[in-house]
Amino acid sequence: MFNLVLFEPEIPANTGNIGRTCVVTGTRLHLIEPLGFSLDERALRRAGLGYWGNLDLAVYPDWNDFCLRNGLAAHGPEPRLHLLTKKARRTHAESTYRDGDYLVLGKESSGIPEELLARYAESCERIPMLPDKATLANRAAWEHRTGELAEEGYAPAEQAERGQAGGHEALQRQDICGNFIDPTDYRISALNLSNAAAVVLYEALRQTDFPGME
């Protein structure tokens, strides 16, 4: 059995989708607080998560408690951990997965904290994606407009505001994947949390001969 770990997840829909994937693959889900949503019965019922009762779930107040309760090294190399980050050199497909491993994904807004990435540097992995230039179809257009505003002396927040006012909202706000981006803080287009979790989990299952996989 594999373990999917969400570090301070923020978006309930992502965690809900990941929970469903965990149920159908027999994977245990670990949530590290704080969470960006409630897990009380009323909230789960309102979200229509009828399968939630079948989920093997554990919730922890912080990273250290998660490590302690699962017998993991909290301050050094830990071969059972796989930390997913865009900053890793090794891809997830180049890693070797064993039954009982922990696949760790960070919060939607900022990923896994730098401190943990440095602590478990040998356990960091990334999902291969197209380079920046290929994933933002209108990158040059909105970068040009942002550059113009910077030359005119506008601060980043003012650049975003004037870009909208000048009819450039579409250029500056949406990438080829449909993600809305901050034009003053460029980030590559990326998989959302539930997509990333599924990609990595199924590679781990494939390597360990999950039923039905060739």
What's this, in brief?
By secondary structure, the protein is of the alpha/beta class. The protein has helices spanning 12-25, 41-46, 63-70, 114-119, 132-135, 139-151, 156-165, 169-173, 193-207; strands at 3-7, 28-32, 57-60, 81-84, 102-105, 124-125. GO terms for molecular function: RNA binding; tRNA (5-carboxymethylaminomethyluridine(34)-2'-O)-methyltransferase activity; tRNA (cytidine(34)-2'-O)-methyltransferase activity.
How would you describe what is shown here?
One of its GO terms (biological process) is wobble position ribose methylation. InterPro entries: Alpha/beta_knot_MTases, SpoU_MeTrfase, TrmL, tRNA_m1G_MTases_N. One of its GO terms (molecular function) is tRNA (cytidine(34)-2'-O)-methyltransferase activity. Its EC number is 2.1.1.207. It comes from Enorma massiliensis. With 214 residues, this protein is of the alpha/beta class. The protein has two domains: 3-129 and 190-207, SPOUT methyltransferase, trefoil knot domain (Alpha/beta knot, 3-Layer(aba) Sandwich); 132-173, no CATH class. It is 38% helix and 11% strand. The chain is built from nine helices and six strands, in the order E-H-E-H-E-H-E-E-H-E-H-H-H-H-H. The chain has helices spanning 12-25, 41-46, 63-70, 114-119, 132-135, 139-151, 156-165, 169-173, 193-207, and strands spanning 3-7, 28-32, 57-60, 81-84, 102-105, 124-125. It has a six-stranded parallel β-sheet. Strand 1, helix 1 and strand 2 form a beta-alpha-beta unit. Helix 1 packs parallel to helix 9 and helix 6 crosses helix 7 (156-165). It is globular, with a radius of gyration of 20 Å. 25% of the residues are buried. Residues 154-172 have low confidence and may be disordered.
